[in-house]
Design brief:
Keywords: Membrane, Transmembrane, Transmembrane helix. With about 375 residues, this protein is mostly helical. Helix content is about 70%, strand content about 5%. Helix 1 (about 5-15) packs antiparallel against helix 2, helix 6 packs antiparallel against helix 7 (about 110-125) and helix 8 (about 130-135) runs antiparallel to helix 9.
Length: about 375
């Protein structure tokens, strides 16, 4: 019999892919474990496949899922990741600065302050392209990369060209406290309400086995008319032309539908609305929900390699190896501030990298 731990690992990954984080998933996993312990069966038999379990959970949140892109993230999720990177930068800055000056405060100069602000904005900007796509603005996403490049160049210029005039001091303990507090706030997750697994497995209302929420079928425009709960499309464009343009952008940006295929879907929706002689908002109460239904009805496709889990894992391993080599060189050269910075990074990233390796290995094994 396969272990529950393996089922849990795959279920958490499937839930994370749908934007349901660790804290929010924990009560669901606890209920699943209790149900599994009572049944004494293989978890795949008593609970179903992890992907189906995640689909059932997501089916209970149609409006929330419609806001998420194919990576399970909302606009806010992308921006929070950028802010977390900014907060995380405060830790090595405080450690390295303290070791360099041998005190509890870091001198603040015009060059250092300006360069640090620009570098921080660049860190946040790394998530802007993803946020723009999730917001349904794929055409603007490349400008996010351009803005990142401009900020990096500007930060380098500020550090090297601006005057080193001292304007004050920054308490190291204060910087660490702000960074730690910001990271804690940004990683807090809401807890999902508990679910009755016996009803869900029996195909009760709202379960994936029962076909999902009423109206969630996406077999063409008619099948996706429900598109979400009442009022979910309150912010959709009032103009019909703008509505269809927004639909195309959401399909391409948020749900990674090929532009040509998105144009075909929009044309089908236009035809349906024309035949009905009504307004798209009357036919499809939620634009985002309708777009999600259409995208989910499409055959599964492999996304760009550079956005896949394997590429992310390989990049993380390469960076980790590079940091380890740099730390070893720093020990040989007795550059202890660099050693401290490298160790701090390894401690911060090691757990995350190891979790990704385990998740990747679990998905690679046959069920």
């Amino acid at each position: 019999m396969r272990s529950f731990d393996r089922w849990e690992l795959e279920a958490r990954q499937a839930l994370a892919d749908r934007g349901i984080g660790y804290g929010e998933a924990t009560p669901l996993i606890e209920d699943a474990r209790a149900h599994h312990d009572e049944s004494g069966q293989d978890p795949w038999e008593s609970l179903g496949a992890p992907l189906d379990f995640a689909a059932e959970v997501a089916a209970d949140q149609p409006a929330e899922q419609a806001r998420r892109d194919t990576q399970g993230r909302t606009v806010g999720d992308h921006l929070r990741e950028g802010l977390f990177a900014l907060a995380l930068l405060g830790v090595p800055v405080a450690v390295v600065g303290g070791l360099s000056v041998g005190g509890l405060s870091i001198p603040v100069t015009v060059a250092g302050l300006t360069g640090s602000v620009l570098a921080g904005l660049a860190a946040v900007c790394t998530q802007v392209p993803g946020a723009l796509r999730a917001a349904g603005h794929p055409r603007a996403a490349p400008w996010g990369f351009a803005l990142f490049g401009v900020l990096v160049v500007a930060a380098g210029g500020a550090f090297t060209q601006l005057p080193k005039t001292r304007v004050g001091e920054l308490p190291i303990l204060g910087l660490l406290a702000v960074s730690a507090g910001a990271m804690w706030l940004l990683t807090r997750e809401k807890r999902a309400p508990r679910r009755d697994l016996s009803d869900a497995r029996a195909g009760g209302p709202g379960s994936a086995s029962a076909g999902g929420p009423e109206g969630a079928s996406a077999d063409g425009p008619e099948g996706a008319r429900a598109g979400g709960p009442e009022g979910a499309g309150a912010g959709d464009p009032a103009d019909a032309g703008a509505w269809f343009g927004r639909l195309r952008d959401v399909l391409v940006g948020r749900f990674d539908v090929a532009p040509a295929r998105a144009a075909e879907m929009v044309a089908e929706a236009r035809s349906h609305v024309a035949v009905a002689g009504s307004h798209p908002r009357d036919e499809f109460p939620s634009l985002a929900g309708y777009a999600r239904d259409l995208a989910e009805a499409e055959p599964a496709k492999q996304g760009p390699w550079w956005r896949g889990d394997t590429a992310e894992m390989v990049m993380g391993l390469l960076i980790t190896v590079w940091v380890v080599i740099a730390v070893v060189d720093a020990v040989v050269d007795e550059q202890w501030w660099l050693v401290a910075a490298g160790v701090a990074y390894l401690l911060a990233s090691g757990r995350s990298t190891w979790r990704r390796i385990r998740e990747w290995a679990a998905r690679s094994r046959p069920a």
